[in-house]
Design a protein that fits this description.
There is one protein chain. This protein is of the alpha/beta class. It folds into four domains: 205 residues, Rossmann fold (3-Layer(aba) Sandwich), CATH 3.40.50; 95 residues, Glutamyl-tRNA Synthetase, domain 3; 112 residues, Ribosomal Protein L25, Chain P (Beta Barrel), CATH 2.40.240; 86 residues, Ribosomal Protein L25, Chain P, CATH 2.40.240. 26% of the residues lie in helices and 24% in strands. The protein has 13 helices and 25 strands. The chain has a seven-stranded mixed sheet. Helix 11 packs across helix 12. The longest helix has 16 residues. It is elongated, with a radius of gyration of 31 Å. It binds adenosine-5'-triphosphate and magnesium ion. The site of adenosine-5'-triphosphate (ATP) has 15 residues, from helix 2, strand 8 and helix 9. Keywords: Aminoacyl-tRNA synthetase, ATP-binding, Cytoplasm, Ligase, Nucleotide-binding, Protein biosynthesis. This is Glutamine--tRNA ligase. One of its GO terms (molecular function) is glutamine-tRNA ligase activity.
């Protein structure tokens, strides 16, 4: 990361001027869904700034709206934060401050800066005006302080129906900044809260609770995304007008957007409701659980956050940046193995039935610390049918009858003939094996293979992008941009050494790509792998 981005510059200045002795940031998710890559970026920024300047970073669950939040989301957010590798200094909840926030609302009423309004939500919207037209004062705007205090107390006591009354700040209905046209501070909601139960039936709005929570937690730099630019006016107005010691400052950076993806929880929910994906951990979306299931590592996600920087320009990041981050990590740090995704059988006619040879091979071409493993060589082997498909085109040096090819880590074989069924589909291929050590295999195509006897059945979930358009949200209908072929399932085999593989293990399947073990099907004993990312080689590119 650019360690001198504009937020860091501000912090350095503030510390030099001794405006603060210690800085404090916060990450404040609303527990109304699972975390996504954008949240990881926000966490990364807040957490690392605090760490690098010897400060602290709070996690605060913004649980001010009981209709949207759920306990399961709090649990999953905590789990994801931990998985990403962040140590949490302090977990807070906006609901911890409900009484204090209420008292600040009373203070605003007493200062004639807030009033209880009886307009309904439609009327409030109409009175607010638009960017082109000015707003109009509510007829309830000039109630006396005493009336407002009484009504607000009665709101809290549950004397009114939902939507009947609300508390609004008294700012300026003529303001060119829409949010300053008497924003709502509190509304009535008869909804049990996951932490405070039925203690409250009025709840503060985000803009009201957020700045107060920041101030109560002594946050120094409140970092958020650009769409909160206008809200900053209200943030500062509230803190200026209540008796509170700390006055945090808000700084905005541009939201993370990634090509061919959507991230907002609202839209992910839409995809689930429309049954385009089943769950939040679908490996085709950029939720943290989705990325984890796909096979992304915390390291690669942090690397990506670091490379995308902190700016004020709205932009859309290329998917290849994210893919390169995971490739770099997987290539260096994860073992190789052999998998046959489109199996076809080869019989080596000069190798006797029952013959078995053990070959010891390296788990990684460079990192010898990853050790070695055993593979088996027998009369029958699987290879990938795409190594045969262009049988008459040797432009890519594909094997043709009489051709010599090399089985990686083993021997050269020569294709003799092909056995097809009556529909012309290749059933098996008969070859002879040059069963001798120290063969010359310069200029000979090397292919991957697995002994039939020592193979394990596997399913490969091959993922492609979920959306066809670079910026799906720009299109008229999100649903129309769905790539209907974003998941293809293949039945194949992996080498026997993977029988001890654990869920989450990642491998480079040679000549294919990087895969992560997602689950083991107990019924069929199939290992189920998710494609993380394909290798970029001639063989792969031709077979997509
Ligand atoms: P969503 O649209 O997914 O609901 P949100 O901003 O409403 O996002 P919150 O739970 O309120 O989600 O977000 C917590 C923090 O994460 C906020 O500070 C928010 O600015 C930040 N954040 C959310 N999405 C992104 C993103 N795409 N890029 C950077 N930061 C983000
Ligand atoms: Mg939100």
């Amino acid at each position: 990361m650019n360690t001198n981005n504009f937020i860091r510059k501000v912090i350095k200045k503030d510390l030099n001027k001794k405006k603060y002795f210690k800085i404090k940031t916060r990450f404040a998710p609303e527990p109304n869904g699972y975390l996504h890559l954008g949240h990881a970026k926000s966490l990364y920024i807040n957490y690392n700034i605090a760490k690098d300047f010897n400060g602290k970073c709070n996690i605060r669950f913004d649980d001010s709206n009981p209709s949207k939040i759920k306990k399961k989301y709090i649990k999953s957010i905590k789990k994801d934060i931990k998985w990403l590798g962040f140590k949490i200094d302090n977990v807070c909840y906006t609901s911890n401050y409900f009484l204090k926030i209420y008292n600040y609302a009373v203070e605003l009423i007493k200062k004639k800066l807030a009033y209880v309004d009886e307009l309904n939500s439609k009327e409030i919207k109409k009175y607010r005006g638009t960017l082109k037209t000015i707003g109009k004062n509510s007829p309830y705007r000039n109630r006396s302080v005493n009336d407002n205090l009484k009504l607000f107390k009665e709101m809290k006591e549950g004397k009114f129906k939902e939507g009947k009354m609300c508390l609004r700040a008294k700012i300026n209905m003529l303001s060119p900044i829409m949010i300053m046209r008497d924003p709502i501070l509190y509304r009535i909601k008869y909804k049990e809260h996951i932490k405070t139960g039925n203690e409250w039936c009025i709840y503060p709005m985000y803009d009201f609770s957020h700045c107060i929570s920041d101030a109560l937690e002594k946050i120094t730099h409140s970092i958020c995304t650009l769409e909160f630019m206008d809200n900053k006016n209200l943030y500062n107005w509230i803190l200026k007008n209540i008796t509170i010691k700390n006055k945090p400052k808000q700084y905005e950076f541009s939201r993370l957007n990634v090509e061919y993806n959507i991230m907002s929880k609202r839209y992910i929910n839409k995809l689930i409701n429309k049954k385009i994906i089943k769950k939040w951990d679908d490996p085709r979306i950029l939720t943290i659980t989705g990325l984890k299931k796909r096979g992304y590592t915390p390291f690669s996600i942090m690397d990506f956050c670091s490379r995308t920087g902190v700016t004020k320009q709205n932009n859309i990041i290329e998917m290849s940046l994210l893919e390169n981050c995971i490739k770099n990590d997987l290539n260096k740090n994860f073992p190789r193995a052999m998998a046959i995704i489109n199996p076809i059988k080869i019989i080596l006619e000069n190798i006797p039935d029952g013959y078995e040879e053990r070959l010891i091979i390296n788990n990684h071409p460079i990192n010898k610390n990853m050790g070695k493993r055993k593979i088996y060589f027998n009369r029958e082997i699987y290879i990938d049918k795409y190594d045969f498909i262009n049988i008459n085109k040797n432009k890519y040096n594909h094997p043709i009858i009489g051709n010599e090819i090399r089985l990686k880590n083993a021997y050269n074989i020569i294709i003799k003939y092909i056995i097809k069924n009556k529909d012309g589909v290749i059933k098996k291929i008969i070859c002879t094996c040059k069963h001798e050590k120290n063969q010359n295999y310069k200029y000979i195509k090397i292919i991957h293979w697995i002994s039939v006897l020592h193979s394990i059945p596997a399913k490969f979930y091959l993922y492609k992008r979920l959306f066809n358009k670079i910026n799906p949200l720009k299109e008229k209908k999100l649903i129309n941009n769905i790539n209907k072929k974003s998941l293809i399932i293949k039945n194949g085999f992996v080498e026997e050494s993977l029988k001890t593989a654990k869920i989450g293990n990642k491998y480079q399947f040679e000549r294919e790509g990087y895969y992560c073990l997602d689950k083991i099907d107990n019924k069929s004993n199939n290992l189920i792998f998710n494609l993380i990312i394909n290798l970029n080689n001639k063989y792969r590119n031709k077979n997509i």
